Structures are given as structure tokens and as C-alpha cells.
Automatic annotation (TrEMBL):
It comes from Tistrella mobilis (strain KA081020-065). It catalyses: ATP + protein L-histidine = ADP + protein N-phospho-L-histidine. One of its GO terms (molecular function) is phosphorelay sensor kinase activity. The keyword Methyltransferase does not apply. Its main location: membrane. Residues 280-500 form the Histidine kinase domain. The chain crosses the membrane at residues 14-33, 201-221. It is an enzyme of class 2 (transferase). This is histidine kinase. Keywords: ATP-binding, Cell membrane, Kinase, Membrane, Nucleotide-binding, Phosphoprotein, Transferase, Transmembrane, Transmembrane helix. GO terms for cellular component: plasma membrane. Its EC number is 2.7.13.3. It is a multi-pass membrane protein.
Length: 500
């Protein structure tokens, strides 16, 4: 099924269909041309046979006159040739005396249409040069159809179509027929098939249709590619005002473009609504939580130290309020990150400066949590296309997690470098590490493998921090993985694409 789906996607691909269309446009004319050329070749053969028979008829009509040729027969020979001549066809009569045996021995006797004597001499030389008389130099035999193109002394192109020898007492008579190239027969025999007017016209029409179809295909394809470009620009810069409708050039895709614009507008509105709702909900919960926290202090002072039951109840209330406060913060963080996933900021961010600020802030906070230190080794001028709030959420979760595991008096190391066009951020702690079988599981939602002794005071540890981290990093086009360090502790390795 997977193979069938992949094959179906390949066949449904616009690029594949365009490729198939190109193959069809190129292969079909070649196949048809070969078939038509073969038919034309057969037609030319039949035409040459017909022309040869025509030359034979002329020769047969002249045989009685040429067998006993004398001066009195000349007018009758000419009349016979003129009677059998046709438009666009010239008939030439030549003689090789019986005592001569080379091609230069042929003499021009008659021609229809009539031409001057000087012309006859020039044309005789031209005909000898064509080589059509070579086979008759020694023997008067071998009549055959021809398709020899030559230029006569007038500069006109003719096609020699047949050569018929007549063996008589005076020598070897030769009847040659020629067709003008502007006639139907001459055009059919003189021109290659691809030069025929109908072939050129059909080729021009086919090429025009092919170009129109390809233009239609490519225009739609370019428009779809333009949609992809607009989507990439919106992804990189959510604040851009570029719309699908402005880019669209195909009226039939107007509804699609408007639907895309509406979807982008709805996503932006939903993301903004979620951010406002998260802030309002957090504010609404924070107020009663703060009131409860403030109310606990007078109760602590009013309950005697020896009232263990009352003290225990107050401690339980205080811890519950702290956990509730952490839960409210976590809920707000989740809603804000979901909003960032719907409409993520993609403007270039100076990651180096942001990480340095976060490390400095945690260095102060870490001193109040068991003398744990946060140290940074951060390369300068590292830029990524990720929202600052998203990165802050990621780093806060990673550092909170590392500080909750690392031993008092040790340090958490934050490293940021650039390797092969990718930004690599490492957060190393010196805690107990994670069982190898749980290295992937810790990124699942509501999964926490720590016991109560590893929880920091006031920490919620609801098992959603690392889940938020992975979701945010992957939404930004990055990767995150956990690995145990050889020297002890856990390493969180984050990779992000470098901003170009």
C-alpha cells in the first residue's frame, strides 16, 4: 500500500505530468513523421514509375521514326514530341552515334519546348555533367526512373525524371524527361519531405499548439510555485503584508488564493487571541493566589509553635499555593507557545545576546538554590529565525530542569556554537543522568522520572517542560535530543538552522 501511495503521488505530481506532456509532444511528431515520410517515399516511387512509363510511351512513339532516321524524319520527330509534351514537362532527345563510345559523344537533337542552338550546347554540357548518361556510354540499355535535380542554363531548377534509351542503326537515342520544380511532380520529387509546404504548415500549427499548452501548464505551475513562495515569506516574516491574492495571476485560482489569505488571517487572529487569553487567565488566577499567600503570613504568627497540627496544615496550604502558582505559570506558558506555533515570529534574532542575558539572570538565581552555578560559553553574533519568547521558554525549561538535578556546589554549562550551518546549543548538568531507556520518554507529555527527593522547593515538575521544549524546537525547524555524558550528568543538545 505504501508503494502504491508513493506511485500515485508521483503520477499525480504536476512536474511529472508536465514531463509526460513534453515527452508526448516530442515523441508523437517523430513517430508520425516517420510514418508519413515512409508513405511519401512510396508515393515518390509510384510517381517515378509513372513518369518512367510516360518516358517509355514517348520513346515507343519515336521508335518507328528513329529506326530509319533521315532528314525528312526531323519534322515528324518534332511533331511527335510536341504532341506528347505536357505543361511543366520538357522532353529532350539526344543521340550517341554508333561509332562513338563515351559520354561526351552524345549530341542534342531536339527539345520541347524549343530553345536556341546556343542554349542546346550549354544544356548538353550540363546534362553530361550530371552523370546520367554515363551508363549509356558503352551500351544502349538501362532505362530507369530518375530524381536528379539540376540547374539549366536559364538558371531554372529542373528535376530529370526519366531516361529511356532506343538502340537504332544510327546509334543510341536517349529520351530524357524533366519536370519544373514549381510543378506538382517536380515539387514532389525535388524537395525532401520535411520541406513540403503542407509538412511545414502542419509543423507550425503543431508547434504553436504545443507552445500554447506548455504555456498554460507552466503558467499554472509558476502560480502554484508562487503560492509556495508567499507561504515561505509568511513563515519567515509573519508580519509581512504579502498575500496570495496579490500574487495570483490565474483567475481560476482566485478562490484558492482568497481561502489561503483567510486561513492566514484566521491563524494570526487565533494566535493573538490565545496570547491575550493566556495573559488574562494568568492575571485572573494570580490575584487570588497572591491574596491567599499574603493571608498565610498572619495565620503563621497567630498559631503557636507547639500546635503541630495547625503548623502542618499551614505548610500544606503554602506548598499547595506554590504548586498552584507554578501550574498557572505552566498553563500560561503552554498557551503562549501554542500561539507562537500558530503564528511564529521568523525575524532574525541575535541568539548570542539572548543566551548571555539568560545565563546572567540564572547565575543570580542559582546562588539562591543550593549554590548551583550557571556558566556560559557562547560564540558571538549567532543569529536564528526564531521568536525571542520561544527561545526564552526553551532555555528556561532546560535550565530549570538542569538546576533541579545538578548537585549543590556544581555548575550547569551552556554552550552555543555554529557547525556546518547549524546552531548547536548544549546544556550540561552534573546530576545523576537518565536511564538510557528513558532518554526519549522524558520528552513525552506529563512524564517525570524524578522522585520527591529531587524536587526543588516550589518546583511544579508536572512533566510538561521538556515536552514544550521539543515542540517549540521542532516547530522552529530544529532538533533536540538528550544524552548521558561520559563524565556524568545529562546533556541536552539543541540544533537550530542558522539565519542566512
Amino acid at each position: 500500500m505504501t508503494l502504491l501511495r508513493a506511485l500515485r503521488r508521483t503520477v499525480d505530481s504536476f512536474a511529472v505530468k508536465l514531463g509526460i506532456l513534453l515527452v508526448v509532444f516530442f515523441s508523437v511528431p517523430m513517430i508520425l513523421y516517420d510514418q508519413f515520410e515512409e508513405a511519401d517515399r512510396q508515393q515518390r516511387t509510384l510517381l517515378l514509375d509513372s513518369v518512367q512509363r510516360q518516358g517509355n510511351l514517348v520513346a515507343q512513339a519515336l521508335v518507328p521514326l528513329l529506326s530509319e532516321f533521315d532528314a525528312a524524319a526531323v519534322p515528324r520527330v518534332r511533331q511527335t514530341i510536341e504532341r506528347m509534351a505536357q505543361p511543366d514537362v520538357s522532353i529532350k532527345l539526344m543521340l550517341r552515334p554508333s561509332n562513338e563510345a563515351n559520354r561526351n559523344s552524345f549530341f542534342y537533337i531536339a527539345s520541347v519546348p524549343a530553345v536556341p542552338v546556343d542554349y542546346l550546347q550549354e544544356e548538353r554540357a550540363e546534362l553530361i555533367e550530371t552523370g546520367v548518361l554515363d551508363r549509356l556510354a558503352d551500351t544502349c540499355g538501362g532505362g530507369r526512373p530518375l530524381a536528379v535535380e539540376y540547374t539549366n542554363p536559364k538558371g531554372q531548377v529542373e528535376v530529370l525524371t526519366s531516361l529511356t534509351p532506343i538502340d537504332a542503326a544510327m546509334g543510341c537515342w536517349v529520351v530524357i524527361t524533366a519536370h519544373a520544380t514549381d510543378g506538382i511532380v517536380g515539387q514532389s520529387l525535388a524537395r525532401p519531405y520535411w520541406q513540403m509546404p503542407e509538412v511545414r504548415f502542419a509543423g507550425a500549427v503543431y508547434l504553436t499548439l504545443a507552445l500554447v499548452v506548455l504555456w498554460l501548464f507552466t503558467s499554472v505551475w509558476r502560480n502554484i510555485r508562487g503560492f509556495a513562495g508567499v507561504a515561505r515569506r509568511i513563515r519567515k516574516d509573519p508580519g509581512t503584508q504579502r498575500s496570495f491574492s496579490e500574487m495570483n495571476r490565474v483567475p481560476e485560482l482566485n478562490d484558492v488564493a482568497r481561502s489561503f489569505d483567510d486561513m492566514v488571517r484566521d491563524l494570526r487572529g487565533t494566535a493573538e487571541t490565545m496570547r491575550r487569553t493566556a495573559e488574562e487567565n494568568a492575571h485572573a488566577f494570580k490575584t487570588p493566589i497572591a491574596v491567599i499567600s499574603q493571608s498565610i503570613e498572619p495565620l503563621k504568627r497567630s498559631i503557636p509553635e507547639d500546635d503541630l497540627r495547625g503548623r502542618r496544615s499551614l505548610d500544606l496550604i503554602e506548598r499547595s499555593v506554590q504548586r498552584l502558582d507554578v501550574l498557572v505559570n505552566a498553563a500560561r506558558r503552554i498557551e503562549e507557545t501554542v500561539a507562537d506555533l500558530l503564528n511564529p515570529p521568523r525575524t532574525p534574532l541575535n541568539l548570542s545576546a539572548l543566551l548571555e542575558d539568560i545565563v546572567d539572570e540564572y547565575q543570580e538565581n542559582a546562588r539562591t538554590t543550593g549554590d548551583r552555578r550557571v556558566v556560559g560559553r557562547i560564540d558571538r553574533n549567532i543569529s536564528v529565525r526564531v521568536g525571542a519568547d520561544m527561545i526564552e521558554t526553551v532555555m528556561q525549561n532546560l535550565l530549570d530542569n538542569a538546576l533541579s538535578f545538578t548537585k549543590p556546589g556544581t555548575e550547569v554549562m551552556v554552550t552555543a556554537t555554529v557547525t556546518d550551518g547549524r546552531v548547536r546549543v548544549l546544556v550540561d548538568d552534573q546530576g545523576p543522568g537518565v536511564p538510557p531507556g528513558d532518554l526519549e520518554r522524558i520528552f513525552e507529555r506529563y512524564v517525570s522520572i524524578r522522585d520527591e527527593s529531587q524536587r526543588m522547593p516550589g518546583a511544579g515538575n508536572f512533566g510538561i517542560g521538556l515536552w514544550i521544549v521539543r515542540r517549540n524546537i521542532e516547530a522552529a525547524g530544529g532538533l533536540i535530543r538528550a544524552e548521558n555524558r561520559k563524565e556524568g550528568g545529562l546533556r541536552m543538545a539543541v540544533e537550530l538552522p542558522l539565519a542566512r
